[in-house]
Every structure is written in C-alpha cells, then in structure tokens.
Specification:
single chain, about 700 residues, alpha+beta, Cytochrome Bc1 Complex, Chain A, domain 1, 13-stranded antiparallel β-sheet, six-stranded mixed β-sheet, 27 strands, about 35% helix, about 30% strand
Length: about 700
C-alpha cells in the first residue's frame, strides 16, 4: 500500500486536532519585590538509616509534596545509552503488590500523583497529594522507591514508546545539531555526549534495570524533601517507619572522565529538504561550584535569554534571520558548556554564524555591553528567580540541588544580590576566558548545498543524522559487498519475480486503520485501487475526517475530496498526486531504469542491506532490505511540511502470498506527530468494471 497520499490527510487532521485540544496557559503572577523577599525557612534532619531529609513548611494550601533525589544519571549508562532513563521510567510501572494500572487507578481516585524520571546526573521520585490523602499516596511512593517490580509487559510497552521518541529526536534539526556539538565538545565517547539510539535501546534488558536500581537506590546516596502542610514530628515518624529497613550501600562514582574534544571546526550534517538550517555554537566551561559559574549563567541570558538579549536584537529584530535565537549555560556538577544558536533561513546560515561569532567577540570588551542593557537582563533574571517561588516545588529543587552540587546555601539564598553585583567588566573577563573563537565548536544541520559556504569558519567534518562520520557510512557500504542491482533483483525474486509482477494489471487493497495521536487512538479504514500504470483511486476514512483521491493520467486529470468538497488538481498538486499512481513495492523493481533517481547501496546494518534513493527534488529515502529473505522491511524518508521536513518510518510486516505475489499484511507508519497501523488485504487483477477513476 502506498501510504504517502494517506499521510498528507492524516497530517492535516493531527495539526488541527492538536490545536483543538491545546489549552491556554494562564499568565504567571507578578514576582515579589526583591526587597520583600526572604528565603523560606527549612529544617534538615537525618533518619536512622542515613537518609538526609529537608522539611519545608508551607501551610497556605492543604497539600504535601515529597521528592526523593537519587544520585546517578547518564554517566552510569556505560555503552547502553538510555539505561538510567529507562530504569527510572520503569519505577512506577509496578511496585510492591500493585500493577501499573492499580497504581494509576488508586492515585486518580484521590487526585494524587507519583512520578519518576531522570534529570541529568540524578533521578527523582516525586509524590503529590492533598494532606488528607497523604498516607495513601505515600504508601505507593514508598513501594516505588523500595520495591519496584520491573514487569516484563510494561518493559515492552515502554520500549515501544522510547523507539517512537528516538524517531521524534531525528525529526528535529535543532536536537540533531545539539547532539552533534556535544559530541564535538566532550568527545564522541564521553557520557555527556551520548544519546539513546535504536541499537543502545535494544541492548537494554530487564536485568540491566534491576542491576542499576540495586547500584543506586541507597539512603546514603539520596536526599528527601517534604514540602507543604504537615506536622513535623508526625512526618518524621512516618518516614522512619517506612524506610527503617532501607539499607545503606556503596554509592557509585558519578564523576565523568575528562572531555576529549574533537578537532575544532564545523561539524556539518546535510539534511535534504530542510526549510531552515540549525546552528549551534558551543564551548567547554567550568564545574557548577566554580566562582565564574554565575557570571557565565548571566552571560547566557545576555546573549539569548530574553527579547532584549544580543541575538534577539541582531538575528531577529535587525536582520530577520530567525524567530527564536537561544543561548544558555548548562548546570552539571563536574563540567559544563556554553551554547548559543538559532534555526535560520538556509540562505542566511553563514551570515548568521558570522553575527553570532561577532556578538560573542563583542562581549570580550567592557564596551561590548552597556550598563543599561546589563541592568535590564539582571532585572529579568532576578524577577524570574523570585517569581519561581510561587511554586513550593521550586524551593525543594533549590535546596536539594545545592546539596547535590556542593553549592553553599548562602549562594542560593543570596542569588539576587550575586546577580545584581555582576558588572560588564565581569562579563568581558569570562567571555575572553571561555567564549573565544579558538574555543568554539560549530554544528550545522541543513541543506547539502550549504557545505561550501561554511568553509570560512574552519575545517568541515561531515556527519550523518545518526551523528556518525560519513567515512563510517562509506565503510559500511564497502562491507556490505553487494551491488544495487543485486539488492533489487533479490527483492524482485522474493516477492514473486519480475514476470509475475508484469502480469499484475490491477490491484485492490482494503484495510483497517488505527491512528494514534496525542495519546489517543482512532479507528478507520483505507482503500486503494490501482489500474496500472495510469489510474488510482484512494479513500481514507476515520470518525473525524475523510479524504478521497482520483488520478487518471490518460486524461492528465486528478481530483481530491475532503469531507464534502471536491477540488480538481492542477499544476504541482497534480504532479505530486500522480506519484500516488505508483504502487511502491512494484515501482521499486524498476527504479534503476529511471534516470531521474539516484540509487546507491548505503551499507549494511543489523542484517539489513540499506539502499539510498534520491529523487529529482533531492529528497532522500533509505530502503531496508532483509539480507536473508530479500524482502523490504522498512523505509525511512522525509516528508516536506509547512513546518519543515518530517521524518517518516514505514515498516512492512507479515508478508503473505496472493496469487504468487508476496505482499505485507501489516504496515506501521511512525512520524513525530502520529503513528498509523494498517492491516491490509489484497486482490490481484480484480474486476474493475464498476470502478471509476474520477468523481461520480
């Protein structure tokens, strides 16, 4: 089944649906005046098992929030990137005697929540409830901390979710650029440069999660905060009783190896079809407790943290190259980096890099930033800090964070004054020390044609979307030892042979459709009728939308119908629609005979031979053929949308014989916005006497 035309209709629906369910976020309250701000009082106690507890009283609302911080993040992943993230996500999927469903039902019944996740170098388990329901919520919280069960069925469900998130990562040029620059700055093998991949994810087993839990969840490797309306003696007694059997252990070493930065230059990732290019420029800096940290943090805001920042005033307001430039300084305990960049117009990529570098250069002079501009940014930073205290959770984050990072609490309490005391001279000193061109790494994701324009900024190192050197891709190609002609020939034989396919004059497909978007699923139906080589009729129906397309190339005519409106297709729309007259699996057999397509073997991966196909519009598709069977397993491609390129994966499963032709019963399509599963049935050379290839 050719899914390309169906995807367009679904994309329009999902975009509309997403807007329909979005809710306006109410404006944040005004921050307290700085001169009236007093850091909230809190108390520190240590339980008999060694667990440090921070008690933060707040009786304005009858609620209690509890948060456990456990040291141990991505640095402990090893070669299995995503391991600690996976483990933390599994904590609430079954604990004690409760299943994931029972946990969710109990919490929903009392309007409470218990969640777990990873935050860089540590994990958190958080619970929240009304005061009157605290005991019920805390029973579940304690089970999640002390007795997670890691059930296999939930493990498999979560695996599917993570695979979908990996596909979503690859759809974001900015995320890819950020991953690339981290690899350049830290070194590609450094823990801080790792990200979850299909390969690393599939290497994770349930036993790995259990081992990681056992190596990190100790009372002497954690802190606990309790915030809200509680009685101090009562809460300490509850904590002592619940955690009395929680034994101490040997905390893991969280200090990462020293960075092994790559060669300085431009790390370029070509992405055909990109509407914009993504630029990120980054430099290594200092640990969280370094004296220069707050100045660098403020410098991030000076560059791109607000509408008055340097990149907003240049890239956005003066030149209109971008809408949302950014700059930030990371917050790691051991080593950090400064980063800034933007998504910019393709044709303005080199100009944008020049401007960013010039703005960084200007900071190195005390005259590069006026006192008035700095005061404006400082007011913004201090105001944001004070406003955040409207959330009691923010207070516990600050206290537990200071403990984890080894930052004196006086610095946290006196943050407004620390920021207020920073001068333009301080900014210029740290800029000259850490943010020079000589210490900068540049990552660019954009059109292949941009490559030559980037040479002025240094040597070009070309990488793939998977953050692998192009040389590795070439080596993979060489290792496969098979030609493109052999790949296509093997595929043709696998599905029935070229002669059998030539005898297929017509094809009818009907199938059920499951569309998943925004966490919900909808059922529908699809139908396609082909009269080769010139005619096609398609119909896609769900409870929310219906689309129909007719193409008759013999008359150079095409129509589309959405709901009750029929439109005749002309020009580019007709030309695009005519592509749907091709049944992809059959058309693929003759692709080498079409000079408009560039076809080459990309390499071998996990028992798959990868064939790269570039169409006349420079759009790239990767076809994955099973090395053993010769059948097509998957297509990875990019669909142009008004928002930019959308990465799409189409999987073909459960091939079955239909009159000597093998066709897939199941097709699974995954995009960042939605996924579809089609269960199809086929009719070879059906009677089409009653079929019309134009609107009736």
């Amino acid at each position: 089944m050719n899914m390309r035309k169906i995807l367009v209709a679904i994309l329009l629906f999902v975009s509309f649906y997403s807007k329909g369910i979005s809710q306006e976020v109410p404006p944040k309250p005004e921050p307290l005046p700085a001169n009236q701000f007093v850091f909230p009082e809190y108390k520190t106690v240590t339980l008999s098992n060694g667990l440090k507890v921070f008690l933060i009283k707040d009786d304005e609302q009858p609620t209690i929030m509890i948060n456990l911080l456990v040291k141990g993040g991505t640095v402990l992943d090893g070669k299995k990137s995503g391991l600690m993230d996976y483990m933390s996500s599994m904590l609430t999927k079954g604990a004690g005697k409760r299943t994931a469903l029972e946990i969710a039902q109990t919490l929903d019944g009392i309007g409470a929540s218990v969640g777990a996740g990873i935050r860089g170098e540590y994990m958190e388990v958080t619970g929240y409830s009304l005061k009157k329901h605290f005991n019920t919520m805390f029973d579940i919280f304690a089970d999640v901390v002390l007795a997670p069960t890691f059930p296999s069925d939930e493990f498999d469900k979560l695996m599917d979710q993570y695979i979908a998130s990996i596909k979503q990562r690859k759809s974001s040029s900015q995320t890819i650029a950020s991953d690339m620059v981290k690899a350049a700055v830290y070194g590609q093998d450094h823990p801080f440069a790792q990200f979850m991949t299909d390969e690393s994810l599939k290497s994770i087993k349930i036993g790995d999660l259990k081992d990681s839990y056992k190596k990190t969840f100790f009372p002497n490797n954690a802190t606990l905060s309790v915030t809200g309306d509680f009685d101090e003696k009562e809460i300490i007694n509850i904590l002592e009783q619940k955690f009395k059997n929680w034994k101490q252990g040997t905390p893991p070493n969280l200090e990462p190896p020293a960075p092994k930065s790559m060669k300085r230059g431009v790390y370029f990732i070509p992405r055909p079809g990109s509407k914009q290019s993504s630029v990120v420029i980054s430099q290594l800096t200092i640990p969280r407790n370094h004296p220069d940290y707050y100045v660098l943090d403020l410098t991030g805001s000076v560059m791109g943290g607000s509408f008055g920042a340097k990149l907003f005033r240049t890239l956005r307001e003066k030149y209109s190259f971008t809408y949302t430039p950014f700059a930030y300084h990371t917050s790691s305990k051991y080593i950090n980096r400064f980063a800034c960049g933007a998504e910019v117009k393709n044709e303005k990529t080199d100009s944008s890099i020049t401007i960013i570098m010039e703005q960084l250069q200007s900071l190195q002079s005390p005259d590069g930033l006026t006192k008035e501009d700095l005061d404006r940014i400082k007011s913004y930073k201090i105001g944001s800090y004070l406003m955040s205290f409207e959330s009691s959770g923010y207070i516990s984050d600050l206290i537990q964070g200071a403990d984890f990072y080894g930052v004196p609490m006086d610095q946290i309490k006196n943050y407004p004054q620390i920021i207020q005391n920073i001068t333009t001279l301080d900014i210029s000193k740290v800029a000259a020390k850490y943010l020079t061109n000589e210490k900068s790494y540049i990552a660019v994701v954009g059109l292949p044609s941009l490559r030559d324009s980037l040479k002025k900024f240094g040597p070009i190192y070309e990488y793939t979307l998977d953050i692998k050197p192009v040389e590795e891709e070439k080596a993979s190609k060489k290792a496969s030892g098979i030609s493109k002609e052999q790949v296509i020939d093997n595929f043709a034989k696998a599905i029935g042979g070229k002669d059998a396919i030539k005898n297929v004059k017509a094809l009818k497909i009907e199938g059920s459709l499951i569309l998943s978007a925004q966490g919900q699923s909808f059922n529908g139906n699809v139908m396609q009728v082909f009269e080769f080589p010139d005619k096609v009729h398609t119909l896609t129906k769900t409870p929310f939308f219906s689309t129909e397309v007719w193409i008759d190339k013999t008359k150079n005519k095409g129509w589309t119908k959405a709901q009750d409106s029929t439109i005749e297709l002309t020009g580019d729309q007709l030309a695009e629609a005519e592509e749907s007259t091709k049944f992809e699996l059959f058309d693929l057999i003759n692709i080498l005979d079409d000079p408009k397509y560039k076809v080459d073997v990309k390499g071998e991966k996990e028992g798959m031979i990868m064939l790269k196909v570039v169409d006349p519009k420079e759009n790239q598709q990767i076809y994955y053929f099973n090395k053993t069977t010769g059948l097509l397993d998957k297509i990875e491609t990019t669909q142009s949308t008004p928002q930019g390129p959308m990465d799409i994966s189409i999987e073909f499963k459960e091939y079955e014989d239909f009159k000597g032709i093998k066709l897939p019963l199941k097709q699974i399509t995954t995009t960042p916005m939605f996924s579809t599963t089609v269960d199809a049935n086929y009719w070879i050379n059906p009677d089409l006497s009653g079929e019309s290839f134009q609107p009736k």
